[in-house]
UniProtKB/TrEMBL annotation:
It comes from the Bacteria. PANTHER family: LACTATE UTILIZATION PROTEIN C. The lineage of its organism: Bacteria, Bacillati, Actinomycetota, Actinomycetes, Kitasatosporales. Residues 113-211 form the LUD domain. Pfam families: LUD_dom. Gene3D superfamilies: NagB/RpiA/CoA transferase-like (3.40.50.10420). InterPro entries: FTHF_cligase-like_sf, LUD_dom, NagB/RpiA_transferase-like. This is Lactate utilization protein B/C.
């Protein structure tokens, strides 16, 4: 018996008592755990920071007042000559001066975006248990391609409001029809000899700014 037969057999046994005309959303119980443990909001944010760092993202903490200075400092440290800013990014997040601003235009080609040094976005939700950022193409995040081509991505996460404990909790906040991008650390891959290479199909450097809303 193949692995495929084993898996399909388990599925058939699990659905043995389900009528063929049962609506999909009722066929399988969804009463599984939404989270593991009972972490406080602060502990959940701390867990997110640890797991982001474990995936080689660079994590920074600040508050709303200091956010423009933090972003300006990160762009300067990276040596960015220009930065792409999505149209809906809150203007008060960005420093008054700094690298030239690049607009997200529909006619921009991948070659145009490859000339962009950095991109600054918000996010839809951040998942603590997996160290994952989810973008959904909202105005403060821009098109999916603007976070896949430039080499340096600064992602701003409002804490604790945008932080959830688990993937099931995140799914309840997301709209499946939107263009979801799930990011766990900088882009990386390994060849057959397990040599890690970063920046192959996404930014080589991911910096996450956790902004306190309190």
């Amino acid at each position: 018996m193949s692995s495929r037969d084993l898996i399909l057999g388990r599925v058939r046994r699990a659905l043995a008592d389900v009528r063929d005309d049962t609506p999909y959303e009722q066929a399988v119980g969804r009463d599984y755990l939404l989270r593991h443990g009972r972490l406080s909001a602060g502990e959940t944010v701390d867990l997110l920071a640890r797991n982001l760092a474990d995936y080689r993202a660079i994590v920074h903490r600040t508050d709303v007042r200091e956010l423009p200075g933090t972003i300006g400092r990160l762009l300067g440290a990276h040596g960015s000559r220009n930065v792409l800013v999505p149209p809906g990014l809150p203007p008060q997040w960005m420093p008054a001066s700094g690298p030239a601003r690049v607009q997200d235009r529909a006619e921009s080609t991948p070659y145009d975006l490859d000339e962009v040094d950095s991109v600054v976005t918000g996010c839809a939700v951040a998942i603590a248990e997996t160290g994952t950022l989810v973008l959904d193409g909202s105005p403060d995040q821009g098109r999916r391609r603007v976070t896949l081509v430039p080499d340096h991505h600064i992602c701003v996460v409002r804490v604790p409001g945008q932080v959830v404990s688990s993937v099931p909790e995140a799914l309840s906040r997301l709209v499946p029809a939107r263009p979801l991008t799930w990011i766990s650390g900088p882009s990386a891959t390994s060849d057959i000899e397990l040599d890690r290479v970063e920046g192959v199909h996404g930014p080589r450097t991911l910096e996450v700014v956790l902004v306190s809303e309190e």
